[in-house]
Write a sequence for this structure.
């Protein structure tokens, strides 16, 4: 990537902090022994992970024994959903998810239908939030798991996970609640000691300037869960040689982003507000704000009238401006299920793009973006209307 | 690790090639965009993986569409076994494994008992090889999968996977055969175009001087298999953002080790022979060769009379010599299931250690190792006999 490129796709993946790149380099060179080996070289590798993990867990206010490192957010989501389901298989059980889940939650839940689970989907209300009245009707004594994202990867809609966790447990004390926190870790305060009714939480490294191929799953003590990758490591729940450099890189990234969390939040909040104002002033009736106004400052989803988002995305890409047409995971499969369930006007539904920020983005970049949109949008609309 | 340290635990993990460390660094710095994103930055990341994967697949003589990158050997083994089982769930079906499988194969198979699968275990014959007569009796029309290691991680015993694959298919054309090739990739010739009856094969990166947290699973076209990590990437079978630097590092490691495969093989063969001769001359009746003589040159398992292996391992570790008491994955759980099923004399069973080589090991290191054993063994035997 060069300085001339404008990267507005930070919800898909982020640049890796320099310190993290250097640390990975050091670990790969000096600590290659298997952290499970009991000789001194193995113990040295394990100690690298141990001290970094302790710091990671302090930030989340959990015990290290409650955190298992995985290969990423998708594995964490699969782990949470499948392994809770397989440990609690009884007849006529159901799982509740929201309509705005990432494919690694939604498709995993539907996969479980073949094992006899009923999948129930809770929709959004007119304000873009989870419909709590509907949720109360969906959760019953046969619900073993509810899974929702903390921040929706496509729209940035923020879910009140504390409130939802309390609602669920009030209906069914035994029902587990899993939160996909892939888009909120390092961006929103997450203090798990204050969330007594949250049982599982998924995290990803490469969304917070850490390396790819690493994630984590928080599992509250006493949650009845099967192992996901079976073997012998990690308390029997997730086998596989611990990825020393990946895990240490992830932990270092969290410690850096956490220190800057509040200032980053304010910075992106100002940037998002600036972008919305500029868009409104440039396109007024030709844009539709898909994201709720009170959504995450890191994500803005907007739809243009009479535009195909992939065409706009490609045109912007030619000008070295990188945005997304939804979540990267949906990018090759057309309009997402999430957007389909929202009340987006017909003229706009195909023209939704996602702009997602990190600390490096600036108002100058937003200005260049708007300038390019002013040129491209009328041209592309003309093309579609023909 | 310093030059004074002797690392004989290469079956647990290996040093990372310098070129690989540098390449990971470059990818982490320059190609951070999500390889699934459709803008130019995403495409550039994807291209990095594509060209390296093509080279990887050429070495194995397979099509790129048949290979899925995973988070490591344990995931690949879990993926192969669970996902074939879940895609072929019918009553009274069985799965056949050998008695020398890695925990990520053996424990995964036993996990499937709760879903109704019967697990059958094939033992070794007196020569330390899979008992083919027993195998023929175990495989029947209800067998959906046979899984064996190519090279046993604990003893280095080499399995004739071609012969076994032909035996299985002669009995039951529809039975799938999975090979755990974690200890053979890069060390033994693997040309999958010559193995028509092999359906799945697992690989790991960090056993061949690549990074940890990466592996791969070969899946022959038309194998009926469920997705393992569900979401939307990788043909729907393994979701999760592609780990660009990890995958590229793995591919580069394979291309380097493959070029040196034959010379490495001869070198370690000479080294293993030298070690066996020196051990025999130094300890004669006090050692028992656990590994078959025709085993992999990279692995030697020997047992000492009246010794506890973990005590010896620790004593050697104090002298900066690193060996293993079995596979690293078993290292904290006592005598392995594999060794228990072998005919190891009672006096020796607790004293088995594994020495595993790579290209950097030398006869000088073997000399220092023997010298230290000459000092330690009588002392430790005295301790046990007291």
């Amino acid at each position: 990537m060069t300085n001339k490129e404008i990267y507005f796709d930070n919800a898909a993946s982020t640049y890796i902090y320099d310190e993290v790149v250097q640390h990975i380099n050091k670990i790969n060179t000096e600590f290659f022994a298997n952290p499970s080996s009991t000789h001194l070289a193995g113990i040295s590798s394990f100690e690298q992970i141990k001290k970094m993990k302790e710091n990671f867990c302090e930030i989340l206010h959990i015990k290290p024994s409650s955190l298992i490192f995985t290969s990423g957010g998708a594995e964490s989501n699969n782990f949470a959903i499948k392994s809770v389901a397989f440990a609690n298989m009884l007849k006529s059980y159901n799982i509740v998810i929201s309509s705005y889940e990432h494919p690694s939650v939604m498709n995993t839940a539907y996969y479980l239908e073949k094992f006899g689970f009923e999948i129930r989907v809770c929709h959004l209300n007119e304000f873009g939030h989870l419909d709590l009245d509907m949720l109360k009707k969906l959760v019953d004594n046969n619900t073993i798991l509810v899974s929702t994202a903390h921040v929706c990867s496509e729209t940035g809609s923020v879910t009140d996970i504390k409130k939802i966790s309390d609602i669920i447990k009030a209906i069914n004390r035994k029902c587990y609640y899993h939160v996909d926190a892939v888009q909120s870790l390092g961006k929103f305060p997450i203090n798990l000691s204050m969330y007594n009714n949250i049982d599982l939480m998924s995290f990803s490294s490469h969304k917070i300037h850490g390396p790819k191929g690493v994630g984590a799953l928080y599992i509250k003590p006493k949650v009845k869960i099967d192992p996901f990758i079976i073997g012998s490591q990690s308390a029997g729940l997730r086998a596989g040689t611990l990825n020393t450099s990946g895990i240490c890189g992830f932990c270092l990234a969290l410690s850096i982003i956490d220190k800057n969390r509040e200032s980053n939040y304010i910075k992106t909040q100002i940037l998002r507000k600036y972008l919305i104002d500029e868009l409104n002033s440039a396109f007024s009736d030709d844009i539709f704000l898909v994201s709720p106004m009170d959504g995450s400052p890191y994500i803005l989803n907007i739809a243009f009238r009479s535009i195909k988002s992939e065409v706009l995305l490609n045109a912007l890409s030619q000008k070295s401006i990188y945005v997304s047409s939804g979540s990267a995971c949906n990018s090759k499969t057309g309009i997402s299920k999430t957007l389909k369930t929202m009340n987006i006007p017909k003229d706009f539904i195909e023209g939704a793009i996602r702009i997602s920020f990190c600390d490096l983005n600036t108002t100058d970049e937003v200005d260049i973006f708007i300038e390019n949109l002013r040129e491209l949008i009328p041209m592309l609309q003309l093309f579609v209307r023909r």
About this structure: Residues 261-283 of chain B form the longest helix (23 residues). Chain B touches chain A through 80 residues (CB under 8 Å).
